[in-house]
Structure formats: C-alpha cells, structure tokens
Amino acid sequence: MDTPASVAAIMSRVGVWWAVAGGWAIDLWLGEQTRDHHDVEVVVSRRDQHVVHAALSADWELFALDPPGSGWRPWSGVPIDGPAFQLQARSPSGEFDLFTEAVDEAQWCFRRDNRITTGSHEVIVPSASGIPIVRPEIQLLYMAKSTELKNERDFEVARPHLTPDAAAWLRDALQITLPGHHWLQQLG
Fold first, then answer.
1. pLDDT of 5-17, one tens digit each?
2. Which CATH number fits domain 4-135: 1.10.10.10, 3.40.50.2000, 1.20.272.10, 3.30.460.40?
3. CA-angle at 65, arms to 13 and 33, nearest 5°
4. How far apart are CA 158 and CA 170, in angstroms?
C-alpha cells in the first residue's frame, strides 16, 4: 500500500488541485494515526481528469469505476461523468484511489447534494506535515452516509477537535443532507 507521503510526492508533480481524503485526511489533520487504513484516497477536480491521466498513465495502470457499482475497468482518459467519480492508479509498488470532485476556481459542490457548497479555497487545508488534506468537517460529511465502524471512529476522534465554526458547518450540512443523523446530537 502507498502511504499518504508517497502519494503526496506523486500528486505534487501532477500540477492540479488535489488533497488526501478519507480516513487518512482525518489522521493527518490530527497529527497521528488513530486506526488502520486499507488505502490512500485523494480528491482531484473533475475537470482535471485529462491532466491526471496524462501525468500518471506512463507509470501507473489507471482504472475507473464507471458506472458506480460495476467493476473496475481500464481508464483510457475519457472523462467519467457523474454519478461516477472514482478512479484508481495501480503499479507493482502500490495503488491509490482518486475521487473526482465538482470544483472550479471559485466553488466546490458536494457530490451527493448540490445544495451544499463552499468556496474552493475552503475545501483543502495543509496538515501539520504539509500534505494537503480535505478539511475535516467536509470529510466527515462524506463519511456520515455510512455507519461503518471506521467512519464512526473517525467522527469520535475528530469531533472534539473541530472548531465551533467547523462543527456548525457540519451540523448545518447534515441537517440538509441527512436530517436526523445521530451525529447531530453531538454537534450541538
């Protein structure tokens, strides 16, 4: 498996908007590994798919999960459209996932509910190690859909460290997208 640092070294050469996502984003934000991770996920802008393909295809086998729920298929670089969002880079030394996001110079839009938006500059923050990560409240919003133990654990360890503004943003977003979600009680 690749590490966030090794994936960051690869992605920093691609020259696109990107950040580590998933559970690693939470752990990098906290500055410590709080659980095992089976993969490294990064987000990229949906509009940069051609740049990502051109930058990675010489050294990596690239795959797309299109349509969602199907199996992985080789990705030739033809852009995938929503609802598909997941790409994967594989090599003999490892693999990592790439999630395409609806983001432009000004705005990011939550892939699961276009009522949730924020400025594109608000989505990514640097971790203590300097690796760009998805802001924790945004990452937790993605995780909220599933009650998998890993997502519940990520919320438990991250929630006490959220700023009041971040907790309010997550609470407001959950009230719109998942009203009645059990995390709402803990967000005040």
1. 999 999 999 999 9
2. 3.30.460.40
3. 55
4. 12
